[in-house]
Amino acid sequence: MAICATNSITIDGLEYGKDIVDLKEFAADYDRFRCFLLQRRSVRNFSDVPVPNMVIEKIIDSVSLAPFGADASNINITVVNNKDILANALPLLSNFYNNIEKWFKNPFIRYMIRRNAGENSYRTLRDHILPMVKIGHYDIKNGIDNITRRAPSLIIFHSQKGTPEAIEDSHIKLTYALLATHALGLGATAIGLIPPAINKDKKIREVFQIPQSEVALASLIIGYPKYHLKKGVVRRRFNVNYLSNETVK
Question: What structural domains and CATH numbers belong to the chain?
């Protein structure tokens, strides 16, 4: 249907003009695309301006265009565009992470964390999260929010437990959301702290209204940037091994 010039091919459940739409002329090129990527940075400082629902809807529309591994509808989305809900969740999130130091001091609990979380997640907890906990990074008693960053909006991606390709699909959708957010003049950053807390803490799950039968996979905070960048950052290139007939310079 996507390549038929006369709209002669049909597939049950798909309709021309609705599910299959005409493409506008593609005006982007690599230089513009790279410039767009240079301008996009993780934003953790937001203005007090709320994000209108119609803007959030454009982000969700962009996410719906993302490719998928097993099923286009296997990921559910919860939009938290309510600062009161985020404010209610913050103490619970802070308490959850402040307890990690106590859990790691208990050999049995530490063993169970390693067994259930897997080696990669365990090392992230031990080598990244735990040191931040020890210096009070997630403690909100000092009035600083290093979890939700006082963002006005939050998007959570979640799915039924055991859904095929769910983790990969949620990360693809998260990336689309980050790019769409930037294109709309907003700032955003992926927050890996929120999904594990939802999955392990019943009260946090209830605040965000995530069904018990589902697992939270990814999340991002959204808002209008407090600061506007004047320069981009060129990251270091990855180590790349080319298996090619052509010499790459």
Answer: 43-223 (3.40.109.10)
User: Would you say 85 and 91 are in contact if contact means Cβ atoms under 8 Å apart?
Assistant: no
Report the C-alpha gap between 148 and 191 in whole angstroms.
8
Tens place of pLDDT for every residue, the chain, 249 residues? 999 989 999 999 999 999 999 888 776 789 999 999 999 999 999 999 999 999 999 999 999 999 998 887 899 999 999 999 999 999 999 999 999 999 999 999 999 999 988 899 899 999 999 999 999 999 999 899 999 999 999 999 999 999 999 999 999 999 999 999 999 999 999 999 999 999 999 999 999 999 999 999 999 999 999 998 889 888 887 888 889 887 766
- Listed residue (134, 139, 157) closest to 210, CA to CA: 157
Q: Do 80 and 155 meet the contact criterion of CB atoms below 8 Å apart?
A: yes
**Is the torsion defined by CA of 180, 185, 186, 192 positive or negative?**
positive
CA 149 – CA 191 distance, rounded (Å):
10
- 98 φ, ψ (degrees, to nearest 5): -65, -25
CA distance 9 to 2: 9
What sign results for the dihedral spanned by CA atoms 211, 216, 220, 221? positive
Cβ-in-10-Å burial (0-12, 13-18, 19+) of 24 comes to exposed
> Residue 100 and residue 195: Cα distance in Å, rounded?
15
Q: Are 96 and 200 in contact (CB under 8 A)?
A: yes
